[in-house]
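Re: your question from the hallway

Yes, I did run it. Sequences:
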Amino acid sequence: MNLKMLAAHLGLSQTTVSRALNGYPEVSEETRKRVTEAARELNYSPNARAKGLATGRAMAIGHVIPISTQHEIVNPVFGDFVAGASEAYLKAGYDMTLSLTGDEDEAQNYRRLKAKGNVDGIILHGPKMKDARIPFLTGLKMPFVVHGRASELDQPYCWVDVDNAGAFRRATNFLLDLGHRRIGLINGLEFMDFAHRRREGYEEALAARGLAPDPALGRSGEMTEPYGYLAAHDMLALADPPTAFLTASLITAIGVRRAIHETGREMGRDVSVVTYDDDLSYLSNGRDVPIFTAIRSSVRDAGRITAEMLLRHVATPALPPETTLLEAQLIIGGSTGPAPAKH
Amino acid sequence: MNLKMLAAHLGLSQTTVSRALNGYPEVSEETRKRVTEAARELNYSPNARAKGLATGRAMAIGHVIPISTQHEIVNPVFGDFVAGASEAYLKAGYDMTLSLTGDEDEAQNYRRLKAKGNVDGIILHGPKMKDARIPFLTGLKMPFVVHGRASELDQPYCWVDVDNAGAFRRATNFLLDLGHRRIGLINGLEFMDFAHRRREGYEEALAARGLAPDPALGRSGEMTEPYGYLAAHDMLALADPPTAFLTASLITAIGVRRAIHETGREMGRDVSVVTYDDDLSYLSNGRDVPIFTAIRSSVRDAGRITAEMLLRHVATPALPPETTLLEAQLIIGGSTGPAPAKH
DNA sequence: CTTGACACCCGAAGCGCTTTGGACTCGCAG
DNA sequence: CTGCGAGTCCAAAGCGCTTCGGGTGTCAAG
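Structure:
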């Protein structure tokens, strides 16, 4: 079933049928009705490739995920982000294509992506500090939005990011207010921009109270459960162990909890934990009473917002770069309490 | 940069250039070299849409994920599956497009997907028991492979699945061998086919020893941490509590562990836990010594295998349906031990 | 009666590629 | 010298759609 057949079936020209279906005004309401009805009946829907060729728009957005030979791989956040973005695409009639690429010849990859022409815009995931992809994409003249930001790049570009520094500053302050002075930071990989900013927030909060960060209380790594366990395990074994932890993800926090229990301490009483929580659909932090005190920001919402921004820029390429900074909420759960009195 | 310009630049016809680039024999090796070099230099890569139009192949695979209004949403397994599938696509030069669809007018969705013509094949996720999409897709004459299976459908189709029943039979037997008699099953949603089969395996193993499943020890739900916690919490509060749990995912198992600790018991001594483990990249079950005894099967491998099967069928549509049953490994970790003696 | 204006519709070109059906040039056997 | 196959290359059609640049026919205004 294609346009030609449909047109023949209706005794109309392809032109008219095409216009009728695409809502152009130079076609009578009556024939438009006839056409749309016939289209539905015969299960006609236009061939996207042909349409794309003719219009120059692919009606699709590309998500590029670096899948480096180290183990970053697809991270748990991705599913929810995509779900959010999909909401936006669904409404706008856009498709989504995924490219997991090794990060060898990045430049070539993006250039090809553009030349192949099956996406109208790109969402960039997992920006590193001064990420080289950003200036490159800017030069490519293809609309893109970064999920996150890249520090130390002053060139303007579109991004949607959580205020990571602010979130960790608040979390740190919260713990400081509870009397904690030795706060372990169990961070993500710090060449990733978000993790870098989180450490900044943490250190700023400490500095504001005249405290210097203890290197023994800072750890950076991939945010798995065993990593959280190990990091907490080691720090708790110190002569002067931390009374509180700040972790970068719920999964890591779960590992921290395991380590705390294993040493016979109790979370929320002997040791406090505040975690960042991406509010993932399958990793809920409890219902009414959150298990962990957390700084929470829905990555699914971020996905929707990022996609909407991109679609705006695809529709109007002349738009100046736009940015959105999302604020994370601090929600109080059962994992925090006043610092235990020293004895 | 397109074919026409490249041809002009080389003083050749589009035909010859196209053939040179696509490895056809009716072009001299010398000109082929000239052409490929010029193509690389000028950063030419063919427009995928035009190519698709001309060849009738989209060089892309569609993943359709039901995103129902209930809360299944994108599940944590998805990211790893996609990473595996990408390996196969990358090698074969295929792209991947994602469609998250509401499950209202499924039939219409798939029909449109085919008519739009930007995928050559489909991977079906999350099959339910006697899933209606399977007969429908068969009728559509578009190659597809199901990740999982649908019980109570005797029609042939391509699938890649883990032997869920076998895995849970083995896990149950393992616990029975350790002397456990009251084994709680904390399962996924049982209208999903995989969860249904897991229960079957569990019940078969019990039946083989003349045990009847206690309804109070069976629970079905979305595999979140709080769900695992709640289920275990409730069962442990029974007059005759279970001495072991069988859980459907690592995340759920983590909730179970929390419940066990909360009642002052110790996992692996007072209460045993065996979990299903999808071997997710970001949710590792410990390194050398696994935290949980688990039945493990890499969902990432499954993704690769499924994609490879689909590509085979896209290349040769006449191939008869093919199936692959993956066996899960039983790996022993610290979460299991002999049933505590009754007193 | 002619002229625009308007509403409606159509033919055909063109998007960038592949592929069919030749065309041309050699070299070699007849 | 002719014929013929092999080796190279090309022109043009076609994939399914949009869209430009007209074409009708009707009707009110001039």
